[in-house]
Amino acid sequence: MKLTVFQFEGTPEELDASQVLNELTNPHRGSVTVISPALRVDSALPARIPGVADEGQETVRRLLSRSPAPGLFVRFLQEATGWDNVGVYGIKRKNAAPGSPLDYGRYLRLRKQGSQWGGFAYVYAESSSINLRLSHTAAELQQLCMTTARILTTGHPAYRVSVDLTDETSLADALRLAELAYNAT
Question: What is the pTM of this model?
C-alpha cells in the first residue's frame, strides 16, 4: 500500500475554489482525511526536545512543525527518557565517515544504555509514529487492550508493532507498549 499525504494552507474559500485540490480529493480516488490546524493535537514545543542531543534539536523541531501531533510526540519522549538509562539517538548513515554527526532527519532510536539488543523503539517525529521492538500478534495486542496499535507487515521482524500518536488513548498505548519493549531489552 502506498500512502501520500498533502497539506494545503489557505482560507476555506481559497481551498474550495481550487480545481487541483478538488481533483485530488475526488471521492472516487479513495479516502481522504483532512486535519485542520485547529484540530492538530498540538502544544507549544518546549525549549528543548527531551532526550535529543544538541546537534539534532533543530532538525527534530523542524520535523515536529509538520507533525500531526507534536505535543503528544514530545510527551512520549518526556516520559520514555525518564526511564532508567534511556538515551535518544540519531541514526548513523551508511558509508558515513568516522566522526560524522548522527542523522536526526528520518527517525530517532530510543535505547536502554548498556543493552545489547539495540533500540526498544524507533520514533518518527514528522508523523508522530512509534515503532516498537515487539513481535506481538494482533490477538496479543487485543488481549492487552491496545486499541490503537497496529501490526506492521514489512521491515525488521523484531519491530512489528506500531502506534500513531493521535490522541490521549494512543499516547497511553504507545507508552505501555514502549515499557514492555524497554523491559524486554
Answer: 0.75
* Sheet strands side by side (includes 108-112): 86-89, 108-112, 119-124, 129-132, 161-164, 149-151
pLDDT in tens, 14-65: 666 777 666 666 554 444 444 444 444 445 799 999 999 999 999 999 999 9
- Tell me the per-residue pLDDT of 57-114, one tens digit each, with 9 for 90 and over: 999 999 999 999 999 999 999 999 999 999 999 999 888 888 899 999 999 999 998 8
**Rounded (10°) angle between helices 70-80 and 168-184:** 30
Task: Say what the alpha-carbon torsion angle 167, 46, 50, 68 is, to the nearest 10 degrees.
Answer: 30
Compute the chain's Rg from CA coordinates. 18
Alpha helices in 2-160 (DSSP H): 12-17, 19-24, 54-64, 70-80, 138-143
Residue with cell 523542524: 62
